[in-house]
Specification:
The chain is α/β, with parallel strands linked by helices. It has a single domain, classed as 3-Layer(aba) Sandwich (Rossmann fold). It is built from eleven helices and eight strands. It has helices spanning 22-35, 52-55, 64-73, 102-107, 110-120, 137-145, 158-173, 196-203, 215-224, 236-248, 267-271; strands spanning 9-14, 40-44, 84-88, 91-96, 126-130, 148-153, 181-185, 209-210. Strands 3-4-2-5-1-6-7-8 form an eight-stranded mixed beta sheet, with helices on both faces. Helix 5 (110-120) runs parallel beside helix 6 (137-145). The protein starts with 8 loop residues before the first strand and ends with a helix. The structure holds adenosine-5'-triphosphate and magnesium ion (MG). Magnesium ion binds at residues 22-23, 46, 51, 130. Residues 15, 18-24, 46, 51, 133, 186-187, 211, 213-215, 218-219, 222, 237 line the site of adenosine-5'-triphosphate.
């Protein structure tokens, strides 16, 4: 499959708050795509504090630092021998781990990282990119090169929602194709006094997809190092993750519901007028 295509699809996970599930969901998206037979590379571009190596129990020999060194020394040298393999019950994909030492992350050049993605997308059907929660030079370049940006949010505290609003508005000003940015809500029914409809009012648009809170399944997946979509348990969260992947690959696509109605009145929406 890899020889036939020119450019693989790059799906980036981005947010304006920490701990919203970027890493957990990007790992599950990579796993589900690999399970379906696609060639997949999962990149941990949370360079300083990346979690993919921990969540998947990897002990990488090489990291993004080695890929950057290699492509800078000789851009014709193949990069795939520097990737880390993840394999579980016959499902396999490759990972670009974040640097092993924090100070290495500081010295990596965003242009070189983008060059690596451009090189690897010729060899993979999908590249899934995990990021940090900020509009950094690297992240803006990643947003640009991505085919799809999953802007992930949770509904917990007012500052998180304020930052989600700023992030979503900022993404819209980047003038990408309207289909490129997908607003996804994670941990939707976690305990909070904030109503989902108020958040939709503030954002001015509906969520593209909603993933439920399932603390036990999520924690178990991290503890065991086995992604939810591969652990054979088929929880509600697993089904929602599979449905998200199906929508991204245009299988079983369901059009989103009507745009959010702007309703006046709630105390929370008044804060953001
Ligand atoms: N749908 C969910 N239900 C319950 N817990 C979840 C869910 N999604 C993620 N979590 C939990 O939330 C925590 C944060 O998830 P994760 O590390 O994927 O977030 P992140 O956005 O990558 O965070 P960071 O910004 O720190 O990198 C983890 O403990 C994870 O198990
Ligand atoms: Mg993370």
């Amino acid at each position: 499959m890899a020889d036939e295509h020119i450019n693989g699809v790059i799906i980036t996970f981005f947010s304006t708050a920490s701990a919203v599930g970027k890493t957990l969901i990007s790992i599950n998206m990579a796993s589900e795509l690999a399970r379906e037979g696609y060639s997949v590379c999962l990149a941990d571009f949370d360079l300083q504090f990346g979690d993919i190596r921990n969540y998947l129990r990897l002990e990488p020999e090489y990291t993004i630092t080695d890929l950057c060194d290699s492509i800078q020394a000789d851009s014709s040298r193949p990069l795939t021998p520097l990737l880390t393999n993840y394999s579980y019950k016959g499902v396999t994909f490759q990972v670009i781990p974040n640097p092993s030492r924090l100070e290495e992350a500081y010295n990596l050049n965003p242009d070189t990282i983008i060059e690596i993605l451009k090189n690897l997308r010729k060899q993979y059907d999908y590249i899934i990119v995990d990021t940090t929660s900020m509009f950094s030079v690297l992240n803006l370049a990643l947003l640009d090169i991505s085919t799809i940006v999953t802007f992930l949010g949770i509904v917990d505290f007012i500052p998180t929602i304020k930052n989600m609003k700023i992030g979503n508005d900022t993404l819209r000003t980047l003038n990408y194709d309207s289909n490129k940015i997908r607003l996804v809500l994670n941990r939707s029914d976690s305990k909070t006094h904030i109503q989902l409809k108020d958040v939709v009012d503030i954002l001015g648009e509906d969520f593209y997809h909603i993933l439920h809170n399932d603390f036990i399944s999520a924690s178990e997946s991290i503890t065991t190092g086995v992604p939810l979509v591969l652990n054979g348990q088929d929880s509600e969260l697993t089904q929602e993750l599979r449905a998200l992947v199906a929508r991204y690959t245009n299988k079983g696509y369901q059009p989103s519901s009507k745009p959010a109605q702007q309703k006046a009145g709630s105390w929370l929406s008044k804060l953001f007028r």
